[in-house]
Amino acid sequence: MSMNFENYLKDGKTWLHELCTYLGIDDEQKAARIFRAVLHAIRDRIPSAEAVHFAAQLPIMWKGIYFDGFTMHEPVRIRHEDEWLEFIRTKNAFAEDADFPTLDHAYYAFQDVMSFLRDHISEGQYKQIAQALHSEITVPV
User: Fold this and answer.
1) How far is it, in rounded angstroms, from Cα 134 to Cα 5?
2) Which end of the chain is less congested by CB atoms within 10 angstroms, N or C?
3) Each residue's pLDDT tens digit, 14-29
4) How far, in whole angstroms, is CA 14 from its chain's centroid?
5) CB neighbours of residue 37 within 10 Å
């Protein structure tokens, strides 16, 4: 099997460009920070085995970002939406200050990222992630 790094880069950039559309922004760096923060929050909230299954559907460049700092873990317990949004905000110090200045910013970013994921991963995987969060957390269907 050959390693085609140009295709890996192209796939990762394609997702980033499309994500910018979902977020309604042109700043790719900001979109990448938001995506990373939400991915890391999801990764740490769902069981480790489910986190690995989810990663299988990400482009290879995003897999690397997703797994950065990953450890096998018990899912973080989150019961309320505000707690979830604060958790997202803590996943990247710069994102918290610049990209998620309020819980409303985190809420809309989370909704947009989930809509993006719903359209880019399998339906079954999306449903598993949505169910693994918590019934108090609003997830686009």
Assistant:
1) 37
2) N
3) 999 999 999 999 999 9
4) 16
5) 26
Residue 117 and residue 115: Cα distance in Å, rounded? Answer: 5
Burial of 137: CB neighbours in 10 Å, binned 0-12, 13-18, 19+: buried
Print the domain residue range for 21. Answer: 5-133
Residue 90 within any structural domain of the chain:
yes
Overall domain count for the chain: 1
pLDDT tens for 77-95 read 998 999 999 999 999 877 7
pTM as predicted: 0.92
Contact 108, 66 (CB under 8 A): no
Q: Greatest CA span in the chain, whole angstroms?
A: 46
Angstrom distance (rounded) from CA 13 to CA 6: 10
Contacts of 82 (CB under 8 A, 6+ apart): 103
Neighbours of 112 (CB within 10 A): 21
Tokens at 32, concatenated: 């990448």
